[in-house]
Amino acid sequence: xxxxxxxxxxxxxxxxxxxxRILDRQNEAVAQRGGRPVEVVAISARxxxxxxxxxxxxxxWFDSPVELARSAxxxxxxxxxxxxxxxxLETVRTALSLSKHVVTANKALLAxxxxxxxxxxxxxxxxxxxxxxxxxxxPIIKTLREALPANRISRLYGILNGTCNYILSRMExxxxxxxxxxxxxxxxxxxxADPTFDVEGFDTAHKLAILTSLAFGTEIDxxxxxxxxxxxxxxxxxxxxxxxxxxIKLLGVAERTKTGIEQRVHPTMVPRTSSIAQVxxxxxxxxxxxxxxxxxxxIGPGAGGDATASAVVADIADVATGNVQPLFGAxxxxxxxxxxxxxxxxxxxxxxxxxxxxxxxVAAGVATSMAxxxxxxxxxxxxxxxxxxxxxxxxxxxxxVSLVLITYAATEASIRSALEKISRDGLxxxxxxxxxxxxx
Length: 440
What we know:
The protein has 13 helices and 17 strands.
């Protein structure tokens, strides 16, 4: 009988416990897929006494994930510790240096150290599998690496963080504020006590860095990503988006441009008729624009124990086959060091919401500043102030009102230049809201 693949799991949180439960009930199917049995032989976690719903005595316990990685009885280490450095990095480095296969769900680790770890895995002839690191149960890594060699990809974009998508969905559908939705997301376990990593876009950026490398055959370059979060989005912005035929999503976007690979994470207006606009709640989605398949959208659960564990188990089954593939679709020495496309050169449509004083000449001054920056306006909408205009026969109260501009294609630099002039001229009462538009 073929010798089992002996697996050690470092980290027994929601995902790690789900991996063990899935392997218990799907062991035969996983063995058929991998060509040999898979056996969990070792585990490591912070709290040995915690009840995880199964008998821990079946496995060899290690207090240290690094010691688990050193065990001669482990062939494949599943790293679910988390974090870009520290124990997670040492565990993976140790396992690979000892010619052990590694499966990980750690996007922060890969975004920061992916190239180094890929070289180490290649040198040892072992697998470093990471399907679970991006978009939970959606097989986006396998799709990019294995299913699309006949395609030249021009753009990839997606909803890669369920917390942000949940918050924006609730804000839009129920008219709630960001703070109200965040509090509810924390209560339901969708957001951490410190939500900064999610809501300010950094989690999405780590995932985008991985997808960009796979899509374009480039070295991971997380530092090249422009990042904005969703904390500044208001119910008014969501209502205006609906009125204009859009929906606001936090997107990670990677695109080939004339100046290089553009990578950006920010709130984005997408047409309400688009596939990605229909994705609500904690669900994730990734759209790939390519020359042969044209547009391909994958939608599914982006987080959660079972969904992420499903991707981990799929990687374990692949490791069991013995088929070692390049991490990013090509050997590391063939990955390009892509030119960075600076955000200032980004070109596209923009939604600009200005809080202006309701008095004569303000709208004309704004339009003039835009024209001087070579920005063409598709539409201008003004939301009247609710303050009674008792002293002005023309209905102007002098109180702040919202002036919403939709531009035709313009550069980031020209938008910023125009807004700086508008601010210097004293035409606005608050900092402007700028949201980029991603058209199909």
